[in-house]
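mind reviewing these tokens:
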Amino acid sequence: MKLLFRSAVIGLAFGYCVSAYADTTATDVQSLQHGWAQAYYTLPKEQKDRAFAKLEEEAALSVARNPGRAEPLIWSAIVESSHAKFAGGLHALDLIKQARAHLLEAEKIDATALNGSVYTSLGSLYAKAPGWPLSFGDKKKAAAYLKQALAVNPDGIDPNFFYGQLLIDTGDKAGGKVYLDRALQAPARPDRQDADAGRRAEIKEALNELE
């Protein structure tokens, strides 16, 4: 009887630890999501570099707090790749390499985490990074990753947006418009109103440029 009671207590304690662990991950990810949306869409350009550097530190702490979880790694990569856009120079190249490494690590853990954001982010990285010999940019790899992202999350605002952009960048404006329109009609994401609003503004701007 004592052994059964002890097993039950251990089981309850383990269940509590798993629940708390999951809650820590969710809280960290939510904080990074909102911090990213503010830094990317709201802050003046001259403040973005510092803001993203601070977010990188927060993301690194989240990765350390949540070992074996894909979500903090994904958001660490998103922060790094976004920072690269505003950092410039050799530092930007280092940042996108770090981002790719984090995404490939996350892919090994759970490729479908956060609705396939690993594939969306890898596709965006390969689409926007400079090509060889400066970096690893590759439009064919970008397309392959973004198609994987769309297979996981066909109605998502981000995979449709980035695939639409890629098609336009590679000369298929008509096809690109189809995916941008789909992105604009994407369902709202829970607790991501700030990011959704910023992304929709980007989509509208891209559509206006096609006219």
Residues 86 and 115 are 26 Å apart (CA to CA). The chain has two domains: 2-138, 154-211.
